[in-house]
Structures
1.
Amino acid sequence: MGMSVGGTGGPKSDINMTPMIDVLLVLIIIFMVITPLTPKGLEALVPQPPPPGQKATLSDQRTVVITIDSNHKFMINGEDSDEAHLGPRLTEIFKTRAERVVFVKGATDLDFLWVAKAIDIAHGAGIDKVGLMTDKTEAGN
């Protein structure tokens, strides 16, 4: 910063860039810190088909699907069950498995209350992850 003393010119005004650069650097640092904290997407579970050439039996089936029809009838992989026996049956199925994943598929005209009950029962049976299935998910298999 200089001052002219005397001379032919009058007062001289220049923009001082130092405070503007300081503010810019602070903003760059703030954006660099905030950027890694942006949320990622949701993890979605999709049922996997059995390996090719291997026919899966009902007891060896890796994917466990709880189906609820419009009459509030529960089924586990096609086997009939009811709300009272759903928890103990899930505990029995998953007692020898390391991966505890179950999928819940409800009828299209079913209230979500029944799907929430199935999810709650599955969590009570010690299931780690619960995925939701729709008709489009099943059609893709």
2.
Amino acid sequence: MIEHHLDVIAQADWVIDLGPGGGAAGGNLIAEGSPADLIANPESVTGRMLKEQGYKL
């Protein structure tokens, strides 16, 4: 499933973060794992957004 809502992503068991952008600028594996794994990964834009919104490791 493709999801962009952080509340849904934060509750997921496993996330695959593709990027770094969309369309021709995307499609590369940036990070994968639990939401906490993404927060801990400095390459993950999704992890950065989760952290900025107050989600914890």
